[in-house]
Amino acid sequence: MQASHSIQADEEEGEEAVAAAAAAELQQHSALHSKKTLAAKRRLKKQRQRIQKRLVRKQQRIEEQQSQLGSAASAAILDLIYDPYSLAEKLFSRVRQQRESFSTRLVFVNLLARLAGHHRLLLSPFYNYLSLYLSPTQRLSPQLLAAAATAAHAAVPAAELLPLLKTIADNFVTETRGEEAITLGLNAVNPKP
Question: Which residue stretches belong to region Disordered (predicted)?
């Protein structure tokens, strides 16, 4: 399945390159060999717009296909994990070691959150770890808040989530913060209907 996606992506990149080359060739040809009339300029502009529309539509189709495959496939993959708790512990120990860059650790945090939410795992130190990085000045705080929301489920005791909620309320929902930070904090704390 991965190979077909990479082949498909390579083909689409090739088609985009061909379309871009055709547009460049058309522009170069018209710039060198044609009379600069208003009608010719309009025709060239329309051709560029058509090529651009095709590329945008193709990109939208690709994104739709990936999103449809992504959600169903990732849930099925999470179901196939043999021992999710031991995997979560290994991932969390790797995240705490801080050998990787923060963006790599964020990928692990997202995977941990998905594992905890899907399999209803109780990872007490994970919520404390998230609270260390939750601040409005953190560039990736929306992703961390999303991970916290994904990892929280009904089986987690309220006493474990309370420090995390307190951190969110203290750091985001205060009158000294901007509207974006307050909105982020309120959306993270309030459950969705």
Answer: 1-20
